[in-house]
Amino acid sequence: QVQVVESGGGLVQPGGSLRLACSLNTTYFTLYSMTWYRQAPGKRRELVASIDKSGTSISYAGAVKGRFTIIRDNAKNTVYLQMNDLRPDDTAVYYCNAGHSIWGQGTQVTVSS
Fold this sequence. Notes:
- The structure is a single chain.
- Helices cover 0% and strands 49% of the residues.
- The protein is an all-beta fold.
- The model has no long low-confidence stretch (mean pLDDT 96).
């Protein structure tokens, strides 16, 4: 059974950076498109960034475009979300999704002074 594991969340000051990582326990990582979502308290889960199987097609939510970067390393079965210039409204639980069907447990990101 394929499992998704996120890591890298934490507390950061406004303007700071964090890098989230999402790993799959499978050698068939290249079969999965990968997507980061987030859910803030009291709000619906929203798509943050996605990357296709080959890494050539990437999209971002408007709120994070220019600040966040999604990268996949197929050799490590891992996708990263580099988050720069973080703002308080980026505070949320960030979830990784593999192949539009497999979810991780989420990792908390808190942006606060």
